[in-house]
Amino acid sequence: MLGRIIGLLKVNKKLLNDMTLVTFARVIDILIPLLTYPYLIKVLGLGSYGSVIYELSLITIFSVVINYGFELNGVKLVSLNRRDKNKINEIVSNAIYIKLILLCCVSTIFLVYAYNYSEDRELSLILSLCLLQYVFANDWYYIGMENVKVTVFIRLITRIIFLIGVFSVVKSKSDSYMLGWLYAMSAILLSVIYIYHFVFVEGIRLTRFRFRTLYYYFRQGFDLFYSTFFISIKDKTTILVLGHLISYEMVVVYDFAMKIVSVLTIPIGIVNSLVYPKFVRNKNIKQFIYVLLTLIGYGLSSLVLSVLLFNFISLDYFNIDREYKDLISILFVVPLLLSCSQTIARNYLNAFGHRRQYFAAINYTTIYHFVCMSILIVISIDDFQVFLISVLTVYIFELLIRLYYFLSTVLISENSNSNSNSNSNSKNQKY
């Protein structure tokens, strides 16, 4: 079975190299925060560090609005027009125009939150500067141009500077604002580097603002924005509800566990990304089953290994009871659920053209998630175990609804094929 997967991944060397670099960048993005966890918890305390993570989760939700699906749609547009410099200028210009408009809208909402609802207005305002990077740090352009090493190098440099800054500047519990400024300045530095490279190296020139052209790109990216937005807010609103109901301390614990989960799901994302173009072209259900079963096998392996290894990891710096450590290990079943759920969603429902079912699964899961979170808020639950079980049921529901659409569409397809075969046989008998 593994041999069949390797056969599916026979793509050109350039694509594999780019995917390796993107994977490396994702690992760095996850590992650097993990490296700083013990130090920041020791210096700032769980509560102060938890408030920073809480605010950053809100920033992440707004960032999805600003990005507006260009991570996928932008790659496609740039890749198709990479040899047409004028078209590239038009694509990049309108992407920036759209993002600037969305930044203004999002910033207004965030300022209302900061002045009226935030428990730490100053920290909220400092971290709001992080929103700038989502306008100018357009990784999708470099991926579409097959020049991924540039964006990986830029992000690696800024991450290393941030890491050095954390250990150099954050020295006491009162330095939570300093940590906020480090995040903000890293975002501004990232934006400046991208702007410089866009203008002076890539030679990008902004085209004239035209409403009709802007509307064309806005409408074209709506479907991808719709899907990525609800998937992202589903994950990040969980942290917001946790901080609201229980404590910022538990926000740190939960965020730490989910970062480990993110590392475990990286291989799933890589394989799904690599085989997606093949399934779009050939729609081979047998090959899809091979990929699905292989990734489920990986999910089972990661579950067993992560639970075993987690017993040897010390969480003394969290200053939490043993029972919380056992509860966190419940989340290690998530990669197993996602190995099936994400594969069905992307490489079957989406790749095979079942877009109605694809978006319906997103809608139903989002509704279920918000119902669960609303119930927890209404009854003011403060039990971490109940909260984790509620989160886990969302992933289970998502898997079940996608599995239902997968099985139903496969059965419909088989019935239609059998009917067409029987009709052709009856016609042959007549002749």
From TrEMBL:
Pfam families tied to this protein: Polysacc_synt (PF01943)
GO cellular component: plasma membrane
Subcellular location field: Cell membrane
Membrane topology: Multi-pass membrane protein
Keywords, in A-Z order: Cell membrane, Membrane, Transmembrane, Transmembrane helix
Alphabetized PANTHER family for the sequence: O-ANTIGEN TRANSPORTER-RELATED (PTHR30250:SF11), PST FAMILY PREDICTED COLANIC ACID TRANSPORTER (PTHR30250)
InterPro entries: Poly_Biosynth_Transport, Polysacc_synth
Main location: membrane
UniProt-recorded name of the protein: O-antigen transporter
Transmembrane segments: 21-40, 52-70, 91-113, 125-143, 150-169, 181-201, 213-233, 253-276, 288-315, 327-349, 361-381, 387-407
